[in-house]
Target: Pyruvate kinase
Amino acid sequence: ARGDLGVELSAHEVPVVQKQIVSQMRKAGKPVVVATQMLESMITNPIPTRAEANDVANAIYDGADAVMLSAESAAGDFPEEAVDMMESIIREVEASEPYRERMEHSSLPLLETGPLIEHAMIPAARNLARDLHASAIVCLTKKGRIAQRLSQERSTRPIIALSHSRKTARHLLLSWGVYPIDVYNACDRMDHADQIVKYEDISFDRVISIASSLALKKDLAKEGDMLVVTGWQPRGVPGANILRIVKL
Model:
């Protein structure tokens, strides 16, 4: 929140510190939200200043997980226009080639590497998805760690995170590029309820089957596309220890 930063810092220091915070949170694998006065003029005007539009775009280029409106949508005269404008800026930046190149080739040293196997597998999944032009990366996650590590790699491919935990799925909504799916609800709606078994007993082939159906259903992929699927060998070591390429 730049308003809080502004209480502690001079105005000219805030941009530098903001970028440092975003960078450190990315290294730590923690979601980071940039907020306060993003489109401040839209409290009373239907369009923002060009400087405000650039401010939002810069936060996205830095790799923030989210940008947030406050007074613009809570008490402003043009709340819907403010939301639409922010979405338009986000989509424009994310569709640009410089942004995609920056994200796909960004490699930050991690503050906490986690298990060695996972540390090697997750970047490999990101690189495979990029090199093979896969439509999405898929993982099944219990507490969200694998999905968060994939998000930390900033692949421009959507990350389909399947979870048996509604709490985990909701938590992952904040992570960059992650499309969390509550497996129980999703499979029930798709008449695949018979595919649901205990998390510890589910097979990797079943993960692929469910993920493929959901990717097609949610228009994240189409027939003939490739998915990069990462996860674990049942009853194996925790974290990601399998990597598979699937053609739909």
Notes: The chain is about 45% helix and 15% strand.
